[in-house]
Amino acid sequence: MSLPAEMAELEQIPAEVDARLAAVADLDELAEIDSAYLGKKSALTAAKKQLGRIDPEQRKAAGRAVNEIRAGIEAAIAVTRDRLSAAARAAQLEAERLDLTETRERIRRGSYHLVTQARDRLEDVFVGMGFTVAEGPEVETAWYNFEALNIPEWHPARGSFDTIFVNLGEPEQVMLRSHTSPVQIRTMETTEPPIYIVAPGRTFRTDTADATHLPAFNQIEGLVIDRGITMGDLAGTIDSFVHAFFGGEVKTRLRPSYFPFTEPSAEFDISRPDGSWLELGGCGMVHPNVLRNCGIDPDEWQGFAFGFGIDRLAVMRYQLDDIRELVNNDVRFLRQF
Ligand code: FA5
Fold first, then answer.
1. pTM for this predicted structure
2. What residue owns the CA closest to ligand 1's atom 23?
3. 306: number of CA atoms within 13 Å, CB side?
4. Which of 204, 225, 259, 313 to mutate to test the pocket of ligand 1 (most atoms within 8 A of CB)?
């Protein structure tokens, strides 16, 4: 290197810089090194000023030598800056990384309410048996809730439904439906037989809540209208459904009963593990008056209907002591299922 004697110490600088760059910790320290060796107060900047004072013969070679040293240091600092920047970026990404797997494991999974689970399962079982699912409104007129179902105004059966009325004034009597049977009428009015439907939904009565009653509860209605339907088809359908829903151990029985919209009528019970019976719902052969009210000829078409409580079914399926557990909304209780 062609440096005059008074600048000889500049030759040490590249090695010194290399040693410091090898040990540099971060970009801040690199900036300090940059300023110390290339800045205004650095030996190299001072050397440039000295060039004017040295022998013109040597000046050119000395200038080139100083520039080479400077360029070498600049290049080494640039390489180190790239390396440190890449490392800093990687560290930042690592620090800001979202561990999605970890978050997912920490979230507590919710579940459907017991009644919703029972209702979904009921729909699955009946759809598997060839039924379709129908719906109707929760607020009904007397025609759908009672009259079309062969319960005229004077009929004592109206009393047994403990109806909650909605006061909308004349001319129509309006009420919260006290059972899902109005959906039978709505379906028969609009659908040509053969009909195979189930209609789950909320129902309301002035019943006081106790271990087996709720004022707002859920029923599922079933309606079959076809040619040559008998009570045997009804009994077989209930039996198949109960087996599909509960498994083979649960037995069913029909007891003679009375509903104005079916003739003959029955109530059906299912066996509890302790051998006692739980009343699940009512059923029967659709009354000819009901068919006629919907414009269906009872000489050509026959059918059966049933309606039972979904909440009671959930009580049985999940072995609860009290139906009110379903509406207390105690999350510790609901979480178990
Ligand atoms: C009816 O509601 C008839 N519509 C059933 C029917 C349909 C008969 C089609 C014939 C043909 P019932 O009032 O018995 O019947 O009620 C049927 C079921 O609903 C009861 O067996 C019970 O499981 C359930 N249920 C009735 N009241 C309540 C209540 N307050 N809380 C919980 N479940 C109830």
1. 0.71
2. 309
3. 25
4. 259
Paired residues of 216 in beta bridges:
204
What are the residues whose beta carbons fall under 8 Å from the beta carbon of 191, sequence distance 6 or more? none
Give the position, in ligand 1's atom list, of the atom nearest the Cα of 213: 31
Ligand 1 centroid vs 298 CA: distance in angstroms?
Answer: 25
- The pLDDT tens digits for 11-37 are 899 999 999 999 999 999 999 999 999
303 lines ligand 1 (CB under 6 A): no
Mutate to test the pocket of ligand 1, among 164, 178, 179 (most ligand atoms within 8 A of CB): 179
Q: How far apart, in whole angstroms, are the C-alpha atoms of residue 117 and residue 103?
A: 27
Digit-coded pLDDT (tens) for 242-254:
998 888 788 999 9
Residue 253 is inside which H or E element, if any? strand 252-259
Contact 290, 185 (CB under 8 A): yes
Q: What is d(CA 145, CA 20) in angstroms, rounded to the nearest whole number?
A: 92
181 lines ligand 1 (CB under 6 A): yes
DSSP 155-213: -THHHHT---EE---SSS-EEE-SSSTHHHHHHHHH-PSPEEEEEEEEEE--PPP-SS-
311 neighbors 203 (Cβ within 8 angstroms): no
Chain length of the chain: 337
